[in-house]
Amino acid sequence: MRHFEVHHDGVTIPVSRGGRGRPLVLCPGLNSTQADLHELTELLRRDHDVVTFDFRGHGLASAADRYSFEAFLSDLVAVLAELGRLGLPSAPVLVGYSLGADLAVHHASEHPDSISELVLIDGANPLPEPFITEADLAEFRAMAEDQVSWHAAERTEGTARQVLLTAQDILDLNLEIDVVRSEILDRYRKIDRPISMIMSTSIAGGRTEGRAPRHNRLWRAGFERLVHERPYVSASWLDADHRLVFTHAPEIARIIRNSHLPADRLAS
User: Fold this and answer.
1) pLDDT tens per residue, range 186-218
2) How many separate domains does the chain show?
3) How far is CA 19 from CA 46, 61, 113, 184, 200, in A?
4) Phi, psi of 90 (to 5 degrees)
5) β-strands 11-19, 48-53: how paired?
6) Is 35 a domain residue?
7) 265 with 225: CB under 8 angstroms?
8) Is residue 154 part of a domain?
9) I need a labelling partner for 152 at 20 to 30 A (CA). Which of 71, 88, 116, 196 fits?
10) Cβ distance 16 to 2 under 8 Å?
11) CA separation for the pair 165, 245 (Å, rounded)
C-alpha cells in the first residue's frame, strides 16, 4: 500500500494505492469515503492496481470553502493528473459510485484518452424528469439532516469516515446533481470507451407507498433513455437499494472483474 496527498485549489486530497494488475481508480460518492468503500476496494485489489481517494470535506481530506459539482470534479481531475505524472502502465478503468459516476462521465467526456473504460455504479443516470420535486424537498432535507447526525461522532473524532458538509450543502448538491443528470446524455455522446453500469433495482428502497415507487420507476426510465440512444452501454441490475456498494460488494467486484476478462476466462 502506498499513501500520498494531492494539493490543489486550497484542499488536501489523501490518496491510497495498492493491489496488482490493471490500473483502476475508484471514485466515491457524496457522503461516502474511501474508508467506507474498504470491502469493495480490497476485493478489487485482487485483480487490479486500485487507487482510492477522498473528496474535499470527506474522510481525511481537508475542508473547503465550496462544495459543488465542479469543485468535486476538480478533485477527481487533480488525482488523475497526479497519477499521470506518476506514470501508470496503462490508462485506468474509472469506477464511480453515485455522484462519483456522474463525475467520471464528465471527466471521460472531456479527457477520453485518459481512461480505458467506465464502470458506473448507481449514478450518471439521464433522468427524464427531476428526481427531487418541490414535494420531495422536505423529505430530502430531513435525509440530509439525518446524514449529518450519523457522521457527528466521526466529525468529533476526526475519523477516516467523517463528512464535514452541512445538511444544506448536501441538499444543494443533490439538487445540483438533478440538473447535471438532465444534461448528461450530451456527455455520453462524447465518450468512445466501453461503459458498464451496475444499477440498483430499488434506489429508493422497497416501499410500495410514498415517493419510493416513483423514484424507482424514474431510475429505470433514465437507464432506458440512455440505452435507447447508446445501446452499447451494458448493465447489471442488483436487487438492492442505493447502498449497494456496501451491501453487495462481492457481486460488484465480480461484475467489474468479469467486464474485461477474455472470453476463454469468462467461460471457465
Assistant:
1) 999 999 999 999 999 999 998 888 889 999 999
2) 1
3) 6, 22, 23, 32, 27
4) -160, 165
5) antiparallel
6) yes
7) no
8) no
9) 71
10) yes
11) 21
Q: Beta-carbon neighbour count of residue 118 at 10 Å?
A: 24
* Residue 262 phi, psi dihedral angles, 5° rounding: -60, 155
Instruction: Give the three cell numbers for residue 154.
Output: 466521526
Q: Answer yes or no: is 112 within a domain.
A: yes
Q: Where are the alpha helices (DSSP H) in the chain?
A: 38-44, 69-86, 99-110, 137-150, 152-157, 167-182, 185-188, 212-229, 244-247, 249-258, 263-267
Angstrom distances, CA of residue 105 to CA of 3, 53, 83, 168, 210 = 26, 17, 18, 25, 31
Which of 94, 98, 50, 63 shows the shortest CA–CA distance to 76?
Answer: 94
Domain with 31 in it: 2-130+181-267
Q: What CATH number is attached to the domain comprising 262? A: 3.40.50.1820
Instruction: State the sign of the Cα–Cα–Cα–Cα dihedral 239, 243, 245, 248.
Output: negative
Over range 98-120, report the average pLDDT.
96
What is the per-residue pLDDT for 210?
84
Query: Which amino acid, residue 72?
Result: F
- Specify if 142 maps to a domain: no
